[in-house]
């Protein structure tokens, strides 16, 4: 029987907003419901959503933990009555909040076994980016073999995961990124076309290489990118927005190019989806790609691990946009 303390250390946000800071405080260890696992956290992935939550722009779903952290890896130390088989197992998965803590609640349907040979840090770097990429490419984008996909922010966590999944599907991949180093990583992962958006108009470069158009665009930028992307679409192509790093206003949007191509403009989130949706997504991803993940035919790109007490430093690095792949906190 594992001894579970009454309290735990967590990273809390102080003064939420543009001047927020992080501090360590004591909280009660949460108790798992019938459908939950209690995980002794070994590592927690860092996501841009954490920075947004600190600024008060991305609150947790109602009733969920206000502690930062959307994905964890660790060992199950308590479980609901129907899920005792997970006890003692190393797992990773999405959490709606609460990851930056010594213990976190993980819905049993969202738990995945840590593949043999994976470190806890690698496991913690996997769920958010691969499930997001799988949702965008497959659940929403319905990407098929030999179709063409444009992945913006190709060297990001989601971008590096999406390149690998798209190549595994048999699609042709183009990416944008901001430096030669980032583009080199994207090419190594399988991107056929890598465009530096700071020095080249991506829509012109793409149109010259793929005059037949793009079937799917994964866009975390939004803003003025949308008008530029619409003209790139193949017939029945899709633009899937999953963040708004370039702003939520679209200047002088002319919908005619979208109509001409019977195009779709889709907005997607994951955190506020239902538990059933996330369970189905996790199971579908596992069925399609768990073997490839275990064999490292696909795997997370882990740039750096930080002791959890250095979360502030890790956040500063992420905010600099100088990262490639994932950053992880270890406990």
UniProtKB/TrEMBL annotation:
Q: What GO molecular functions are on record for this protein?
A: NADPH binding; oxidoreductase activity, acting on NAD(P)H
The residues covered by the Enoyl reductase (ER) domain are 17-329
Locate the transmembrane regions by residue number.
none
- Entry keywords, A to Z: NADP, Oxidoreductase
**Pfam families referenced in this protein's UniProt entry, alphabetically:** ADH_N (PF08240), ADH_zinc_N (PF00107)
NCBIfam families in UniProt: quinone_pig3 (TIGR02824)
Q: What is this protein called?
A: Putative NAD(P)H quinone oxidoreductase, PIG3 family
What is the scientific name of the source organism?
Rheinheimera pacifica
- Taxonomic lineage from the root: Bacteria, Pseudomonadati, Pseudomonadota, Gammaproteobacteria, Chromatiales
């Amino acid at each position: 029987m594992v001894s579970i303390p009454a309290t735990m250390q967590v990273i809390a946000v102080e003064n939420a907003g543009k001047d927020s800071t992080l501090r360590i405080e004591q909280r009660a260890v949460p108790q798992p419901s019938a459908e939950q696992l209690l995980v002794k956290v070994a590592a927690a992935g860092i996501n841009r959503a954490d920075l947004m939550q600190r600024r008060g722009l991305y609150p947790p779903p109602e009733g969920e933990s206000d502690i930062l952290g959307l994905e964890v890896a660790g060992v199950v130390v308590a479980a609901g009555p129907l899920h005792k088989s997970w006890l003692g197992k190393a797992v990773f998965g999405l959490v709606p909040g609460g990851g930056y803590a010594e213990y976190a609640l993980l819905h049993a349907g969202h738990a995945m076994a840590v593949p043999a040979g994976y470190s806890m840090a690698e496991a913690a770097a996997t769920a958010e980016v691969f499930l997001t990429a799988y949702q965008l490419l497959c659940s929403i984008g319905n990407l098929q073999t030999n179709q063409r996909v444009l992945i913006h922010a190709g060297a990001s966590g989601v971008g590096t995961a999406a390149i690998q999944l798209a190549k595994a599907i048999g699609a042709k991949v183009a990416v944008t990124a901001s430096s030669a180093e980032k583009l080199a990583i994207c090419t190594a992962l399988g991107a056929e076309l890598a465009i530096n958006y700071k020095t080249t108009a991506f829509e012109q470069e793409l149109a010259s290489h793929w005059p037949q158009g793009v079937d799917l665009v994964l866009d975390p930028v939004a803003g003025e990118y949308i008008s530029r992307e619409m003209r790139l679409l193949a017939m029945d192509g899709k633009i899937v927005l999953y963040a708004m790093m370039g702003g939520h206003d679209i200047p002088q949007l002319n919908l005619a190019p979208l109509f001409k191509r019977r195009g779709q403009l889709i907005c997607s989130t994951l955190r506020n989806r239902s538990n059933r949706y996330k369970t189905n997504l996790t199971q579908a991803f596992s069925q399609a790609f768990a073997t490839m993940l275990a064999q490292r035919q696909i795997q997370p790109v882990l740039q750096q691990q930080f002791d959890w007490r250095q979360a502030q430093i890790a956040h500063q690095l992420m905010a600099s946009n100088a990262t490639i792949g994932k950053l992880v906190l270890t406990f």
